[in-house]
Write a structure and sequence with these properties.
heterodimer, A: mainly alpha, 4 helices, B: mainly alpha, 23 helices
Chain lengths: 100, 494
């Protein structure tokens, strides 16, 4: 009986998730599903840019738009992060099940 | 009373009126008062989440940190963005579980997930401990603003008391509705003010952004990037990662997840919120401009940089406008923090001791605790001498300890046991407490390690201890359970 309720909840959630994907038809299970799984990995890039980048790009020049290079690099990654998240959101089938 | 103080007083009154109007006519049970019955759409959830980020910490702490430390301040720009990336994948699962089980608070989540009321109690305690420095820094900011705007006419002690009273009154009249609507006013004002200051001040004093950075570079070479030693790239990366993991572990931020109407809204916010971080850029520009214009601030006084520079540059009425914006950045998050701390004490600690207490009784107690917690925070505000950023980093080291137990509880095949989660959390928090109290760093603890490791944020050690204990105890508990199950078929102990 350990975590009995929990497993019911989890089963319900899993069912709902699969229903939403199945409801979209086969294209989501094959091409769309594969694409989404691949695109999700883009979310790793902001971590590389912001956590690893400063080790190699910790410099003042060349200045970009008046900013020290390191700062400009980080700002560029913030913009890229938003773009990457928009792409992931757009391709994620989970976000389409509430559309009319 | 000068024009600046009039503006600031007007902002406080406006916030109170807005809060009062938002809360009026709504029946306030516990759920209504704290999470508005999960009825907020994307714009309001966005503002609540954003509202918690743009606090005194960003306004005064961010500019002060850029002024005092230079390049390392950029960490503030990064960790939020990474936290939103994590949020896209992690928060919907939390929201769904909370929604299905009608959870109200963060400890509810842990207690429910791990079926351990004890874990819930410990999570509430950690939350309260971490919230106090966060509240202290808001009060500190309020004190700075009122004192600086009044040119010392109002002493710091009185200024802090006035600020604390305003926050307390605000929480009592409104609850979360007040936070949401004042967040609208606050975010608009702060956005305009910060962008204006960030563009105008470098232009006014140096003729442009590039010229300003060149002047700073000439006066203090390398100041606008990370230093080779001390707060180096190692410190930077470890701090960004730790604070990104801890970002949603704050009890009030965790609570704001519950207010969303759907999981989709939360995912949507993960796109827009990183862009919102860019406002910090302008805060840094102000801090860097102040370096050569108001030199000589040191220690906790670096937090005065933005305000000193404003007082030197503008007419009193405009200093009043800036002060009003600053007051709102402390008032809105301050009220959220104060409310969360009181609900944690009443709903999660008091109720754990007296399970018979009904909702009405707990809600009443929560409201009564608000002034008590405010007084405690005022005490620490007046007695402490740390910078705003140092206070927040301390709080972060505490809340980040909840991350391993939380993220592992979301896994489909949950491997972590309640004993593992509990012991790991306690071990991590104990490590943070010891290192904070003794002001230890990795360098002082382990002098023989390579420099790179010594420069890591000390929170990394606590997180490693936490994780190690979690794994060891979970494996041990699993072994014991397996043996018990082998010896007897009685499973009722679960």
């Amino acid at each position: 009986v350990k975590s009995h309720d929990d497993s019911i909840v989890r089963a319900a959630v899993a069912k709902r998730a699969s229903a939403s994907i199945d409801g979209r038809g086969d294209e989501y299970r094959c091409l769309g599903g594969w694409l989404m799984r691949a695109v999700r990995w883009l979310a790793v890039l902001p971590f590389l840019g912001m956590l690893v980048g400063p080790f190699f790009l910790n410099r003042v020049s060349p200045s970009v738009l008046g900013m020290p290079f390191l700062l400009a690099w980080l700002v560029a990654w913030i913009l890229l992060t938003a773009a990457i998240m928009a792409l992931i959101f757009w391709l994620d089938p989970e976000n389409q099940d509430t559309a009319p | 009373m000068n024009a600046a103080l009039v503006g600031i007083a007007a902002a406080v009154v406006l916030a109170l009126v807005l809060g009062f109007l938002a809360g009026r006519g709504k029946q306030m049970n516990l759920e209504q008062w704290t999470i508005a019955s999960r009825a907020f759409g994307a714009p309001l959830v966005f503002l609540l989440m954003a509202g918690e980020i743009y606090t005194t910490f960003t306004f005064l702490g961010g500019s002060g940190f850029a002024y005092g430390k230079g390049g390392p301040a950029y960490y503030i720009l990064c960790y939020g963005s990474l936290a939103y990336v994590i949020s896209y994948f992690m928060l919907p699962a939390i929201w769904r579980y909370a929604h299905e089980n009608r959870l109200v608070s963060q400890p509810d989540f842990f207690a429910h997930k791990y079926r351990s009321p004890m874990l819930g109690i410990i999570v509430s305690l950690v939350g309260i401990v971490a919230l106090i420095p966060y509240l202290v820094l808001q009060f500190k900011g309020l004190g700075i603003i009122v004192e600086a705007a009044g040119h010392g006419a109002i002493p710091t002690t009185l200024a802090v008391w006035i600020g604390a009273t305003a926050v307390t009154a605000y929480v009592i009249v409104s609850g979360v509705h007040g936070s949401a609507w004042t967040a609208v006013a606050k975010d608009t004002i702060i956005l305009v003010i910060v962008i204006f200051l960030g563009i105008y001040l470098p232009l006014h004093y140096y003729g442009g952004l590039g010229a300003m950075f060149t002047a700073v570079e000439q006066a203090r070479p390398g100041f606008t990037v990370l230093p080779a030693h001390g707060d180096s790239a190692w410190w930077f990366s470890s701090t960004v990662l730790l604070t990104a993991l801890g970002f949603y572990m704050w009890p009030h931020t965790f609570g704001s997840i519950y207010t969303a109407r759907s999981a989709r809204i939360i995912r949507q916010n993960a796109i827009v919120l990183p862009l919102y971080q860019l406002i910090l850029l302008f805060v840094f520009f102000v801090g860097f401009t102040a370096i050569l214009q108001v030199p000589g601030l040191s220690g906790p006084n670096v937090d005065l940089a933005l305000f000193k520079l404003s007082v030197n540059t503008f007419d009193p009425w405009f200093v009043g406008v800036i002060g009003a914006a600053g007051v709102l950045t402390a008032l809105v998050p301050g009220s959220m923090i104060l409310m969360t701390a009181s609900v944690l004490l009443a709903n999660n600690l008091y109720r754990a001791i007296r399970p018979a207490a009904d909702d009405a009784h707990v809600a009443k107690l929560a409201k009564r605790l608000v002034p008590a917690i405010a007084v405690i925070a005022v005490y620490f505000t007046l007695s402490g001498g740390q910078t705003i950023v140092a206070l927040l980093l301390m709080g972060y080291n505490f809340v980040t300890q909840m991350f391993p137990a939380l993220v592992l509880s979301l896994a489909r095949n949950r491997w972590v046991t309640r004993e593992g989660a509990l012991c790991g959390l306690v071990a991590g928090v104990a490590t943070v407490a010891v290192t904070s109290l003794t002001h230890a760093s990795i360098a002082t603890l382990f002098p023989s390690l390579p420099v790179a490791i010594k420069e890591l944020n000390v929170g990394v050690i606590a997180l490693a201890v936490n994780f190690l204990v979690l794994i060891l105890v979970s494996s041990g508990a699993r072994l014991v359970t397996a043996r018990e199950n082998g010896l007897a078929t009685d499973t009722s102990h679960a």
